[in-house]
Each structure stands twice: as structure tokens, then as C-alpha cells.
Amino acid sequence: MVSVGTVARTHGRRGQVVVNPLTDFPESRFCVGELVYTKDGTEITERRITEARFQGGRPVVGFENILSINDAEGLRDRELRIPESALSRLPTGTYYIHDLVGCEVVTNVGKSVGVVSKVEGTAAFQRLIVVKEQKVCEVPLVDAVCVSIDVVSRRICIDPPVGLLELNER
Q: Rounded to an integer, what distance in angstroms lies between the CA atom of residue 131 and that of residue 138?
């Protein structure tokens, strides 16, 4: 299962919720009839979307059997997931965030930079958050820096300009 969003808060009195999308395809992922799953402890619950619209760039959705603000309040902060097999194929050279997280990052001369812990930023300017021991470094996710990405081998090779890694260290 992969995350496609989180429930931010309730919306209105009829059980709708506002979703913080974690997908590049929110219009097709959060539409009437689509299934998402929530997890409460070890229990996984299938949720069918019965209402969907966008407000302020975020989906506002209603689910089957969630009919009141009290019902919806129980979904606050819940992660919305789908089976990995339900993901759309991406064009060559593009990657899902979950494919990048956990990849080892090395320089083109073989020096280990660390492991990707998350990806931050908007589609226009994303950066890899790379962790090694106690150090955290931001690496721009651009072709000029990330020269090869192999999600099968879980390895990203970078060719950073002089000083980039030191400058972007937190």
C-alpha cells in the first residue's frame, strides 16, 4: 500500500473531509467511485468516495457511511492509501516518492552521501532529504545533479557542484 493523501480536517456537517493530497494525480485519485483505505491499529478499512470536489487546490471528499461531522472527525489525520498495483505508470525519468525514499545516494566518485528519508517541495522544485548518521543534507532533485536514478537497485548517483553538499547541510 502507498499513501496518496492524509485527512486534514472535517468540512461541513455532512461528513466531508479536506484531504492533503500526496499524489501528482489528485483529480483522478479523489473522484466519485474511487477506493482508498485507512488504517486504525491493525484494522484496514476500505472507503469508497461518494462525493468529490476541489476547493483551494485540495480535494473535499465524502465517503460511504461517513454521514456526519462526528463520523468524519474520526478520520482526522488518517493516511489514505491504495494498493501499489493501482498506481498509474509514470513516464520514463519520473518517479513516485515512495520509490525514492530509502535509496542510497552516492556521488559520481563513489562517496556515500546517505539515504533518502523523504522528498520535500513542489513538483517544480523537489529536493531529496538525505540522512547519514546525524547529518541531514538537501539535494536538489534535478537532472543536472541527480545523474542517474535506479529504483530497482535503490541507488541515486549525483554529480553535485562544488560546495553544494556542505551548503545544503542542516
A: 9
